[in-house]
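User: Hey, quick favor. My workstation is busy. Could you predict this chain's structure for me?
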Amino acid sequence: MQFMPLNFLMMWLMGLLSLSILSGGIYILYEWYEGELVGRHYLIAGLVMVLWSFAGRFISLPLLRRPGVDEPKRIRSGTVQWIPRPDGSVLQVEFYGPEDGQPIILSHGWGPNSTVWYYAKRQLCDRFRVIVWDLPGLGKSSKPKNKDYSLEKYARDLEAVVAIAGDKPVILLGHSMGGMIILTFCRLFPEQLGHQVAGLILVDTTYTNPVKTSILSGLLRTLQKPLLEPLLYLTILLSPIFWLMTWLSYLNGSLHISVEISGFKGTETRGQLDFSSLLSAFASPGVLARGTLAMFNYEETRTLSTINVPVLVVCGASDIATTPPASIRMKAQLPQAELMTIKPGGHMALMEQNQRFSEAVGTFCTTCT
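Assistant: No problem, here it is.
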C-alpha cells in the first residue's frame, strides 16, 4: 500500500482500533484474575481479544481472498550496486536481465520498497535490463542524515541511478510517488530528456499535491492544515508507538482491510493482499510521515508541457489514492503521451493486473526506443 494522505488516516484509525482491542483484552484478563470480573465469559472474551490481536490475519485473510498461482515474494538480485549520496544516505540499486538489454529504471511508491516490483521484474527481465532501487529510508537504502525527504532530493538520487544504468538511453517508470519523483527529475534535469532518457511511464501518480487529486479531495484539503499535518508530526514524534500499532494491525488483519479498500479492486489474490500489507508494516512511520509532509509541497503542473519524450500514463480505473482525472489531465498536457486505463484496477493495479501491466510496459518500451 502507498502511504498517501487518505491511506495515512486509515492506518491511524486501524492502528488505534488494534491497540484498543489488545489493551482492552489485557485489562479484562487482569480484572478477571484479580476477581473484579466474575464469570468464565470474561475470561473467554479477554482471551479472544488478545489472540485476535496477534493472529487475526490467519482467520480474516482466507475469508477475504483465495490464494493465487504465483504469489509475490521479497526476492532481491545478486547483482547490486551501492551509491553513496552527499546527504549520507546510500542507495541500493539492483539489476535484472541481460546487460545489453534496453534499461528500464523502476521507482516505487511511498511505503513499500523495490520488492514491490516482483511481477514486473519476472515478466520484463527476459527482454530488458530492469533496474530497481530502494528510496532512501525504505528497504535497503539508508536514511539521509539531514532528514531531507523532499521530492527534489529523490529526483537527484534518481539522476545518480540513471548515471550508472549504462550507455543506452533509459526508460523511467514510476508508480505513485515514484511518478512524482520522475516529474521532478524532468524539471531539474531537462537536458537529459531525449539523451539519457528515452521515455517515461507514469503509473497511478499525479502532477500536484496528492491531496488535491485523491478521492474526497475537498475534505482532505480542508483537513490538511488542522488535522493531517499535526497528525504527521505526531507520527514522527511517536514513531515507535505508531509502528507497534501498524504491526498489530497487520497481525490482526485490519491492515489488510485498509489495503484492500485503498489499493485493490477485488481481483487480487490472498498473497498479493498480504504482501502489500506486509511491506506497509516494514516501513518506518517516522520516515513515511516526513515524506508525506514533503508531498504537500509538490507541484509540477507546469513541468508537463516541457517534457519532450514519449510518455505512457497508466491508471487504475478505480484508483482512489490518485484518481483517474489526474492521469487524464497529464495525458492532455504532455506533448507526446498516451493513456492506458486498467479496469478493474485500483492504485495497485500493477500487482493486481500484473500481466496486463507488464505487457503494456514492454510494448511501450519497444516502441519508443
